[in-house]
Amino acid sequence: MAIFKDHLELLIFRIFKSLIFILPRKFCLVWGKTLGLIFYYLDKRHRRISLSNLKIAFGKELTSSDLKRVARGTFMHYGSSLMDIIKFSSLAEKRKTALIRVEGEKNLLTALQEKKGAILFTAHYGSWEIVPFYVSKFGKLSVIARALDNKRLEKELHKLRTNLGAKVIYKHLATKQILQSLRAKELVAFLIDQNVQKHQAIFIDFFGRKAATTPSLAAFFLKTQSPIIPVFCFPTPSHHYHIQILKPLEIELEGDYQQQVLKITQICTKIIEVQVRKNPEYWFWIHNRWKTRPDQAEEDRFEQ
To answer: Are 109 and 42 in contact (CB under 8 A)?
Structure first.
């Protein structure tokens, strides 16, 4: 049964990809938004998760109707974004470049002058999959990813990512390859905004509630001293991509190793929160971000 399911998912993906490659881009964007809206109403489980997450983040600031509006916008955005990532990968190099607007390129160039490589971080926000196409022009870039359970579909996504300029490092093989890349003065990109299992997590404030977060970015920074650079990408009303590269972080380290890891991860997470607040519908509220909980005593201390 699992093999049949894997083959069916692969077939559906290839059919969609073939259609997207031949259809006009603007049609694909509208098609994606429409499918996203349909899934908002049909997918009760993920609609419930997104509304629950939004209530945690904005329950004191937005009305119930506003929360539903943002949730619908999230489903529509990710429907459109999925279509456009596939479409973007099919475009000629010149056309891809013409669709990108960049803010803060100097910040990346300045960091690379240190000859220590760079640790980039972003979130499941906007059009993050487009970032490698631009950033890889400045040096070899690796992105950290978790392989899909469907190995056949994973091969398709691997091709898509490499087509956009990234080398994929899978989490179960990550430590050695990441260190090798950074010591070779290359760039490594992390997404640090998803829930992780308790034994892998440190608990960081995210929208006023403790969130289980990977400490890996901070750990690699402490090992390599490679500059940490926040990078975000989001669509514009004219259907271009706006890539925003912020200044490398200046972090004053104090305390023991664990305190340093907590401080670095909290700073990075706060930057993500600030970005999400600007355009909430661009973040992946469908993901159960606050699923893993700390020990009750720790949670009670934080609430106080």
So the answer is: no
Q: Write the DSSP symbol of residue 248.
A: P
Integer CA distances (angstroms), 171 to 26, 34, 190, 197, 275, in order: 35, 33, 11, 14, 25
Element (H, E) at 109: helix 105-112
* Distance (Å, whole) CA 184 – CA 166: 16
Alpha carbon distance 103, 243 (integer Å): 6
Contact 183, 137 (CB under 8 A): no
Cα separation, 170 vs 239, whole angstroms: 31
pLDDT digits (tens, 9 = 90+) for 57-92: 999 999 999 999 999 999 999 999 999 999 999 999
Q: Are 56 and 207 in contact (CB under 8 A)?
A: yes
Spatial distance between the Cα atoms of 99 and 141, rounded to a whole number of angstroms? 21
Reduce the DSSP state of residue 197 to 3 states and report it.
coil
Mean pLDDT across the chain: 93
Q: What average pLDDT does the segment 150-160 reach?
A: 84
Q: What is the mean pLDDT of residues 23-45?
A: 97
Please classify residue 254 by burial: count the beta carbons closer than 10 Å to its beta carbon, then call 0-12 exposed, 13-18 middle and 19+ buried.
exposed
What is d(CA 198, CA 218) in angstroms, rounded to the nearest whole number? 17
Nearest alpha carbon to residue 122 among 230, 224, 196: 230
What is the rounded CA–CA span in Å between residue 266 and residue 287?
A: 20
For residue 304, name the pLDDT band (cuts at 50, 70, 90): low
Distance of alpha carbon 9 from alpha carbon 261, whole angstroms: 39
Locus of tokens 């009750």: 296
Amino acid type, 101: R
Sign of the alpha-carbon torsion through 186, 201, 287, 210: negative
Stretch 11-29: mean pLDDT: 92
Give the pair of three-digit tokens for residue 9. Answer: 């998912």
